[in-house]
User: Fold this.
Amino acid sequence: MAKRILVAGSSNIDFLLTTPYIPAPGETMISSGKYAFTPGGKGANAAIAAKEMGAEVVFCSRVGDDAYGDRLVALFNERGIDTRYIKVDRIEQTGLAVVMLEKSGANRIIVYSGANSKISENDVEEAFSCYPDAILTQFEIKPDAVIAAAKTAAYEGIPLFVDAGPADASFPLERLEKVEIFSPNENETEILTGIRPNNLENCLRASIALCNRVDIKYVVLKLGERGCFVYDGKYCDLISPYDVNVVDTTAAGDVFTAALTAEYLRTGDILGSAKFANAAGALAVSKLGAVNSVPTLEEVKKLMNA
Ligand code: RIB
Assistant:
């Protein structure tokens, strides 16, 4: 039977603009690139990715009472996600992310939180009535909501999976109590620990620093084209990446952590799940968009067997 994952996180409309380069202050640049308004948000990307990877997904989020909010909820329903715990906020607009995408596939993102900033401790606690097998959350909602998720998960004895994006050095990590898998990318690792995970020694130092602050079973550092680094409190492993053509890195980290969570819940094998997540993340960078870049389970399996 599929595991039920409660995803507590943000839903955004991404204003995606491709550009040859990012203009300097005071510069106006005419880009012949494309733009689109597409579904995104770290929570939404993770919810759709976990569902594609075979989990049952209940999504706790907030959208505005506007056309973007309607569009997002309709999409989640179409993709088979349980939307019972998505609230329509009557005051705040649906979250918006301005994603500037350079030719290299690298992006810069500015987020207007809108309705996501109203996801409350109560919203998250209420969503636990779906009897989840696990909870997956990110830092794109307010810290109190993340901490409520952690506290309720600990109280109910449900494993907590944390994607540390976007990281904030002032986030009270200690209050997360107990985390099954904690997964930051390179920048987030540096923000949270002050250590850039640019070589194996620093990956290990940063992972130990994280474990000194929170009770984490596995730290999984997302290292982009270097793959990922897994630390279990004693041993560590560097898992090789898959070689793909990089089109857009947006949401690759969200897809990675969701795939890692879904596969780990299914198998209990952390290294196998990290390999699986590397494949899912690699496929996500080979396509444009956030939700639109989430691969299917078949695509992930095919890449792993290739
Ligand atoms: O991680 C990618 C996501 O970050 C985008 O979809 C955007 O909405 C921002 O939240």
In short: Residues 10, 12, 14, 40-42, 45, 97, 109, 111, 140, 250-251, 253-254, 290 surround alpha-D-ribofuranose (CB under 6 Å). The chain has a mean pLDDT of 96. The CA atoms of residues 111 and 164 lie 16 Å apart. The two ends are 28 Å apart (CA to CA).
